[in-house]
Amino acid sequence: MAANPAGPRITYYDDATGERIELSTATLANWAAKTANLLRDELGAGPGSRVAVLSLDPFGKSVPDLPLGVTDYATSVRVHGDQIVPERNPGAALDGRSVADVLSAARASASAQGLTAADRIMSTTGWAIADDLIERLLAPYVVGASLVQVANPDPGLLDRRREAERSTRG
Q1: Which residues touch 126 (CB under 8 Å, ≥6 apart)?
Q2: What values do phi and psi take at 98, rounded to 5?
Q3: DSSP annotation of 80
Q4: What are the Cα distances from residue 157, in Å, to 17, 18, 20, 53?
């Protein structure tokens, strides 16, 4: 993915709300680092912590009327650094699996699917479990492909979107 840091890495659509957001490799890495810094520095997350992050507003607006004990990701993450120093002993990365195991599974999935860096994959399926996340998000990433993820797909928009996004699969 370092070969094309400015190219789109993930483009997300939600046909139910009309939302669209696109992140390049550089932007995705920046937000991943900010998120990791927020989780570690402000919320005390560490190896073994389970967290959920949810912010889909394309302009990063705050969430109104949050209950006590819930942090507004969109407003809290902005102040955190966009570089991260990896943990020395990171613990499990995904569903009890090590980083090496997750990467190995993602590479095997990419190979089985025949994915290449030239692919732009359009998907309407979610990532409900760890294996879905590996197959549908991480496998494209380990080979340098990009993803167009569509939530709540409108069948009438899919062919036009497939063409506009220049998808090669899905």
Answers
A1: 132, 136, 151
A2: -75, 165
A3: S
A4: 14, 11, 13, 28
Residue 169: left if φ>0, alpha if ψ -120 to 50, beta else—which one? beta
> Is 158:19 a contact under the CB 8 Å cutoff?
no
CA gap 6, 77 in Å, rounded: 22
Cα separation, 28 vs 83, in Å, equals 12
Token duo for residue 37: 């810094």
| Dist. CA 52–CA 11, nearest whole Å | 20
- Who contacts 115 (Cβ-Cβ below 8 Å, separation ≥6)? 121, 139, 140, 143, 145, 169
Could you read off the pLDDT tens digit of each residue along the chain, which spans 170 residues?
Answer: 567 788 889 999 999 989 898 999 899 889 889 999 999 998 898 877 877 777 656 566 777 888 888 888 888 888 899 898 887 887 788 888 998 999 999 999 999 999 999 999 999 998 889 999 999 999 999 999 999 999 999 999 999 999 999 999 98
Q: What count of residues does the chain have?
A: 170
